[in-house]
From TrEMBL:
Record organism: Palleniella muris
Name of the protein in its database record: Omp28 family outer membrane lipoprotein
Keywords: Lipoprotein
Domain of life: Bacteria
Keyword set includes Lipoprotein: yes
Length: 269
């Protein structure tokens, strides 16, 4: 686990000065946590029979290029009548949980998305403005996730730590997503592209459909550990965990972490 949350925790501990010059009651001074930069969760409701959804995927790519993939975290949720179930001939990306999220969002016309779960659903041409407005804001919480994957058993352990820059009352949600899935997609010209590459595809909710209660006091650090078994048809090397904290005011913070870190280690100085 990184040291960022620990450092922030230390920042809200008490500052101690010389005992020779300061009285007993004046040695400990509370330091309010520093502001936390907000990352944005973009829930992209999509389907393999949606001819305009590839264009929406291009919008997401542009947003991530502009702001960074760590700052705009997209999840493609295949649900509703334009999503496709797997069968013996077709690889479908529809899930029962995705259908539930789609229905909860009001069963919008595709493509559509929720941006930080603020302001309902947006059409893809509205995502730029919604992301811009939210990414300018600060957050009341910082969050990190770390993964440990056992190849033989295909069991994943996710450790999530969060730091409350302010008091937080909400829920913690942990999702699994997968990149690089080659599967059929209807294109804007009406053709079926069997070689289309789907990215950031929602696979499963690790800690139930709507997550779990997760509350923090100001300055508090809290950690949880959850496990999941990776389906045999999924490719762990292409997968990531998306963890976020949300409440009635929207998604307060989100982070994304690869299941398997394929980046080479930096040589020691």
């Amino acid at each position: 686990m990184k040291n960022i949350l620990y450092a922030m925790f230390c920042a809200v501990c008490f500052s101690v000065v010389s005992c020779d010059t300061v009285g007993e009651n004046d040695r400990l001074i509370y330091v309010k946590p520093a502001e936390v930069k907000r990352c944005v969760l973009l829930e992209d409701f999509t389907g393999q029979r949606c001819i305009n959804c590839p264009n929406a995927a291009d919008v997401i790519a542009q947003l991530q290029e502009q702001y960074g993939e760590d700052n705009v975290i997209a999840v493609g949720i295949h649900g509703g009548p334009l999503a496709v179930n797997s069968n013996g001939k077709v690889t479908g990306l529809r899930t029962a949980t995705g259908d539930e999220y789609y229905a909860a969002a009001g069963s919008p016309s595709l493509p559509a998305g929720r941006v930080g779960r603020v302001g309902g659903t947006y059409t893809s041409d509205q995502w730029q403005t919604a992301v811009y407005e939210q990414i300018q804001q600060t957050s009341i919480v910082s969050i990190e996730a770390a993964c440990s994957y056992a190849e033989t058993s295909r069991e994943l352990t996710v450790d999530v730590s969060a730091f409350g820059a302010e008091k937080v009352d909400g829920k913690l949600q942990i999702w699994l997503v997968e990149d690089g899935i080659v599967a059929m997609q209807l294109m804007p010209d009406g053709s079926a592209n069997a070689s289309y590459v789907h990215n950031h595809v929602f696979r499963m909710a690790v800690n139930s459909t709507w997550g779990e209660e997760f509350n923090l006091a100001e300055g508090e650090v809290r950690s949880v550990s959850r496990t999941a078994t990776i389906d045999s048809s999924w490719k762990p090397e292409n997968m990531a965990v998306v963890a976020f904290i949300y409440n009635d005011n929207g998604v307060q913070q989100v982070t994304k972490t690869k299941l398997i870190n394929n980046e080479p280690e930096q040589p020691a100085e």
